[in-house]
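Much of our argument rests on the idea that a fold can be written as discrete symbols. In the encoding step, the backbone of a single protein was reduced to a row of integers, each denoting a local shape. We regard such an encoding as a compact summary of how the chain folds. The record that follows shows the chain in one-letter code together with its fold in token form:
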Amino acid sequence: MKPSVIFAGTPDFAAAALNAIVAAGFNVPLVLTQPDRPSGRGLKLQPSAVKKAALTHGLTVMQPTTLKTAEIQAILENQQADVMVVAAYGLLLPQAVLNIPRYGCLNIHASLLPRWRGAAPIQRAIEAGDQETGVCIMQMDAGLDTGSVISCHKYTIKTDDTASEVHDALMQLGADAIVADLQQINQLQPIPQSETGVTYAHKLSKAEAQINWTRPAAEIVRKIRAFNPVPGAWTVWQDKPLKIRRAKVVSYTGIPGVILHSNEHELIVACGKDSISIEEIQKAGSKAMSVTAFQAGNILQQGTLLASAETDA
């Protein structure tokens, strides 16, 4: 008999797992997700991706602001669920909640634990130049991604992968992995994480997304990939932010931040070591576009200096 599953999650990454769990025929008596948030130009309240998916399947949804109250814990207990699956939920699970399901709480984490515990594992893996990442299904405990690992599923990071592309690959990998583990939940044998190789994937900030042109081109390209789509690696042009969405390393040298070559098809900016050739760019208030489209109406001239994180931009 398949286990009964409480599901807790919020964004697309989690919604894919919920869809897969439902499609596999598991009973989901309750779905937890974050409260509706204002979004878009009108700042209208918008439901999370998980809420949309849950309602599509006719599932019961709750959106508590905390799981620490006796009331919500009683509701969870009353579901008599065998297991809770958690994916990018956004709320801490107190020990009282971790203890409720028969098989505890399983987390879908987007890294190869113990590397990149924390909030932004996909982005930090790309930024650090990791050649592979993946998804781990973890038995949750009270620590920050410190629980024993049930299964790991690897993904090779391509040289031009952005965070968005890795996210989508791991989203499907995680959905498949959690279904496979739920189907054999009686036989799972969690393995404690090693204390060797622990790293933390700290939350991204807009400030750190500003490009420092004195850094090597390879490092800058990794940052551009890691911060695409959010918050977007950026520099300053005409006193406004200019986001660089895609770029590659090229072997030119010059003063960091200076545009060395500029025409309708090419935009090369010098870095501390080597240079980058920008392939996709986005100015303030506009959509991302190819360099060819951008240069057609917004010519960046050779010799222009783009502001660096080292300046007062």
In short: DSSP finds eight helices and 17 strands in the chain. The CA atoms of residues 178 and 231 lie 29 Å apart. Helices lie at 12-23, 49-56, 70-78, 95-98, 121-128, 163-182, 217-226, 291-297. The longest strand covers residues 240-250.
